[in-house]
Amino acid sequence: MIEPIPNLRQGVTPRPLLTVDGLVKSYPLRRRGLFRQTVTGEIRAVNDISFSVAAGETLSIVGESGCGKTTAARAILHLVEPTAGAIRLGDTDIRATFAEDRRPDVLALRRQMQYVFQDPYLSLNPRWSVRQILTEPLRVHGHAPKEDWDATVESLLERVGLPPDYADRYPHEFSGGQRQRIGIARALAVEPRLLICDEPVSSLDVSVRAQVLNLLADLQEDLGLSYLYISHDLSSVRFLSNRIAVMYLGNLVEIGEVDEIFARPRHHYTAALISAIPVPDPSNQAQRQAIQGEVPSVVRRPSGCVFHTRCPAALPVCSQQIPPLSAPDGTHAFACHNPR
Amino acid sequence: MSSLATAKPTAAMSIDDRSMLTPPVHDLVRVENLRIQFPPWNAPVRIIEDVSFQVRAGETMGIVGESGSGKTLSSLAILNLLPPPARITGGRIMFDGEDLAAKSQGEMQKLRGRRLAMVFQNPGYSLNPLMTVGAQLGEILKVHEKMPRSMALQRVEELFRLVGITDPGSRLSQYPHEMSGGMKQRVCIARALLCNPALVLADEPTTALDVTIQAQILDLFEDLKARFGMSMIFVTHDMGVVARIADRITVMYAGQVCETGDKHAIFARPSHPYTQALLASTPRIDRRYAIDGEGRRERLPTVGRAVAPGQSLGGGCRFAGRCPEAAPECSRLVPQAAAIEPGRVVHCLKRGSAGVASHD
């Protein structure tokens, strides 16, 4: 059993469905010799992050490429094995369940949390019909009798806004937006409580993107789903989220309510990220504070606050001490020595 | 010879002198009724149908559209770089008083890289991985300007500094794989500017980059435009990017132009139903999305009906199938340009466009 999470942990909501406490995922850095490899260090892709997702809410994890947002999502589902930390879904300890590796328990857990992938062109088997794609999870999990499968496929297609008679078509017959709907239908087939959506709309065109975002909102309201929404696209995040967690170089730097974060970002990275987004309004282009430089290599993480090398408000202390994540007002937490 | 060609600066001039040579406002590029088709030639697929737009000297034209709108093909056609078997089968591309569509590949080779330059979407694919960046950019100066090696490298270094590459001297001997994506895109931008082009075509140059790097590159484009006074065609799907970088905008849908005009006018008063839908359906970071007491959130307005796979490239207005205002004649008659404001043109039968039957 893992110990209960103390109340002072930030970003924890009442009645959490998913609780992540001190998640770490690191990869060994090896040097290959002639006869053996030596481990010379480690890369911390995800560095001690904690948050929770309440039933029926959307928590978005945002950040640029390499910030660890996708690794964090995959570690929660055990698609990569976490190095440290506690992850709970409801009352179930996810890491313990996977460690014991009893198939019925693992399946029961996987049924509750499903993944929607970024690229609907790569995530659907081109040689399977939609019917095969959607019945595969029913077959694996065996929770629905075989005679109901056809009816389930039809209702799933209807659920995601596709005509039921498309069931015998193949993925290449669909547009990107329709494929992503099929990907969502596949995730819904096992009636999960949590969907982890990894950039589900970033490969879609603007007009189709709006339709899929609306579909995600519909499904959440009708089925009471929780979403962990991973994205670098702050515009869709603003639309779909209740809360936002901002990651930089494997660290969680800020977490809070969506409108609060956009209106009053406290961490300088969050502020820079928001002001970097081009606003589709030519008369509203004033407030920009571009940050200089690029994200440092994860191999050579900066000391102290990982953002201090690019921060416009860095103090001497920032390169020495790691700022703790704290929330003066109890809901909006940030890790900064010199907040905005 | 036009005035522009005689004013061509030499590489020996310092960079700041060049902005003095900016010619008075006129149309540098005029694309007129451009048509691009794919085989079979007895019943060709009309990918681009009667596309017209102008780019004035010193301005940035933003071409916006979703995938399949023909925005990339239209810009590649200007460089005569259409992927085979696509062909220009009608219309003209006037540049400096000459029709680029009628030029041979040999003649175009002398223009490309010198008077016309391109920045591609993925900087990783458009740089040669086997050559140092100094050598591959120097080669361009050798070919076009007959410049000796040492002088060429000096000029490349000068441009590297200009596009914000730190420590430009030592970067010259680096290979593309030693650079980050943002740095590679800066190299590509430096490459485009080497011969002081009159027109730079940028096809989604920031789409592959992270947002903070995108912001830096957009700042760089603005800075360079002010310094060099070149014209730019900036192709993008992102309404936010075009709101920042463009002076005027052309909105395209399925190979047809929907409307063209000043950026401020189009964002303030979008006329074509597709432009209106595109702007309405873009989620925005600068507004709140309401969530009511029961946790129901508001929805994004969407563009009419969904696109069917293999959208209509037939006669009439190609947006008619999704358009909330479509009338029966919309799918039969091609809407011609109608001026609705000074400098503003829309193609829509409901906005005063004349309709002509398709050419088949």
Keywords:
heterodimer; A: 340 residues; alpha/beta; four-stranded antiparallel sheet; 11 strands; globular; B: 360 residues; eight-stranded mixed sheet; 31% helix; disordered N terminus
Report on this model:
The complex is a heterodimer of chains A (340) and B (360). With 340 residues, chain A is α/β, with parallel strands linked by helices. Helices cover 30% and strands 23% of the residues of chain A. Chain A has helices at residues 69-76, 94-100, 103-112, 130-141, 149-159, 176-188, 206-223, 234-240, 258-263, 268-276; strands at 16-32, 37-54, 58-62, 84-89, 92-93, 113-116, 194-198, 226-231, 243-248, 251-257, 333-334. In chain A, helix 4 (130-141) packs parallel to helix 6. In chain B, 31% of the residues lie in helices and 22% in strands. Chain B has helices spanning 3-6, 15-18, 71-78, 105-111, 123-126, 133-145, 149-162, 168-171, 181-193, 211-228, 239-245, 263-268, 273-281, and strands at residues 27-38, 45-56, 60-64, 87-95, 98-99, 116-119, 199-203, 231-236, 248-253, 256-262, 333-335, 338-341, 344-346, 355-357. The chains are: A alpha/beta (340), B alpha/beta (360).
